[in-house]
Amino acid sequence: MSPTIPPILSVHPTRALVDEPFKVVVENLPPASPVTLHSLIYSEDKDYWEAYGHYTSDHRGIVSAAEDVSVGGTYTGKEPMGLLWSLRPEPGSRTGLRFRKRIVTSPILVHVSVYSGHITQGFREQSPLASVLTERWYMAPGVQRIEVKERGVRGTLFIPPGPGPFPGLLDMWGGGGGLLEYRSALLASHGFASLALEYFSPGELQTADLQLQYFESAFNIVKDHPQVIPDRVGIIGLSLGALLALHIAAESKNIKPHCIVCISGHHLFPFGATIAAAQKDQEKELKTRYDENNYYIWRDVRLPIPSDPAEKTDVRKIQCPMLLVNGDDDQNTPAVEAAEDIAQMMRSQGNLHLLSTLTYPDTGHLIEPPFSPHFRATNFIKPFIKEKVIVLWGGKTKAHSDAQEDSWRKILAFLQHHLYSSTTPKARL
After folding, report:
1. 343-381 burial string, b = 16+ CB within 10 Å, else e?
2. Architecture of domain 8-137
3. Which of 23, 209, 263, 268 could form a disulfide with 325 if both were Cys (CB 3.0 to 4.6 A apart)?
4. Which residue in 39, 57, 239, 264 is the catalytic one?
């Protein structure tokens, strides 16, 4: 490389929401020069995550991640956002890691660098040709973050910028428990007041956490907020959160969600709903199987889908539009089989028109917002018995990442249509 004309690396925008694409361009390289584009994140859990692609500059001495092909690295092909979605723990890291942003009031800091040659390791021990620090945010400027501890409910409410009022959402994650705010913060950045609900908190497990009243109270906290349109409140949930969304929409006599989004869920847990019932269900899971890596496979526990209506939530009662988002390589939940049974049940009631389903090939359980790293297997502590295992979630990185990008766009379109529009026909996906 010429010492007199240093390479110039640019990333635009350098500050953006996590679901916004960026453009990475290197200029002032010699023509036909092999280089490596590299991204590095130091997580809140004090682990390094990296991704990289191998490129060759064109006759002008330029490399563009959006226009050029990576011939090697953690991703290949023309992948503008490969430096994010193919992130993985640096070699030598702890096993079973999962990247999650827990402090949403600060950005994810991504160091993007360009190195001479096609290299595959030791990035932090080498000097890059150029580097740029970029910020990826879940919270847009002006989003309000409000801690909630009222009516027995624990969580965080995010209010979009502007005068409002806004449609509302109750946002529920899975059986790992605790409080996860990043999806709600991002939903608020797109115009939806969203309550990230805490339940199954480590050390705080309460009987109320699986009782319908707890979730009804949380829904009403959203509905009653002065900046929320009270008759435009929906529910979004992943895994156990999706199961809860179906159960609430079917069984609650006190609240009526305007629409629901269920990601990687099922309707096969007819809790009424108590911790005892959940513990009894957990006993079945002790009979599960492991793959060749000794990773825990959960999906078979609930197969085959029972024919007895008493063994599942009666989704025939649901009267609001709902969107099911599933991956056909989900190794944690039989979401695809459950979706087929849900469709049959709703068809029998004549309300199949309320159901929209998205099924993605080679996609696993953890369908996150766009450009989030793919996790095929991660550490997990099972509720109630507190056993630590590595759970197999499934999915192939490229296909799973494509599904995250497509499904997020369609989830936002579904919510926009049903919570902002004055009509509520089937979602236009």
Report:
1. eebbeeeebeebbbbbbbebbbbbbbbbbbbbbbbbebe
2. Sandwich (2.60)
3. 263
4. 239
Architecture of domain 144-420: 3-Layer(aba) Sandwich (3.40)
Question: pLDDT digits over 165-179, tens only?
Answer: 999 999 999 887 789
Instruction: Look at residues 213, 247, 260, 266 and name the one whose alpha carbon lies nearest to residue 317.
Output: 247
Residue 302 region, left (φ>0) first, then alpha (ψ -120 to 50), else beta? alpha
User: How far, in Å, CA of 23 to CA of 37, rounded?
Assistant: 12
- C-beta of residue 396 within 8 angstroms of C-beta of residue 362: yes
Secondary structure (DSSP) of 96-160: T-------TTSPEEEEEEEEES---S-GGGS--SEEEEEEEESSPTT-EEEEEEETTEEEEEEE-
How far, in whole angstroms, is CA 314 from its chain's centroid?
Answer: 26
Residues 357 and 225: their CA atoms lie apart, in Å, by 31
Which residue, chain included where needed, has tokens 């502007």? Answer: 162
Out of 38, 225, 365, 417, the active site residue is 365
Band of pLDDT at residue 275, cut at 50, 70 and 90: very low
Tens digit of each residue's pLDDT (9 = 90 or more) over 189-201: 999 999 999 987 6
Strand partners, 262: 237, 324
pTM above 0.90, yes or no: yes
Q: Which residues partner with 34 through β-bridges?
A: 56
Per the CB < 8 A criterion, the answer to whether 360 and 336 are in contact is: no
Would residue 124 be called left, alpha or beta, if left means φ above 0 and alpha means ψ between -120 and 50 degrees?
Answer: alpha
Tens-digit pLDDT profile for residues 33-83: 999 999 999 999 999 999 999 999 999 999 999 999 999 999 999 999 999
Per-residue confidence at 287, pLDDT binned at 50, 70, 90? low
- Sequence length of the chain is 429
Give the separation between CA 56 and CA 33, rounded to whole angstroms: 5
> What residues does each domain of the chain span?
8-137, 144-420
Distance CA 185, CA 196 (A): 8
- One fold for 8-137 and 144-420: no
The predicted model gives 210-219 an average pLDDT of: 88
DSSP reduced 3-state for 90: coil
Catalytic residue among 39, 330, 374, 400: 330
3-state secondary structure of 34: strand
- Is 239 a catalytic site residue? yes
Q: Is the dihedral of CA 398, 400, 401, 407 positive or negative?
A: positive
The answer to whether 330 is a known catalytic residue is yes
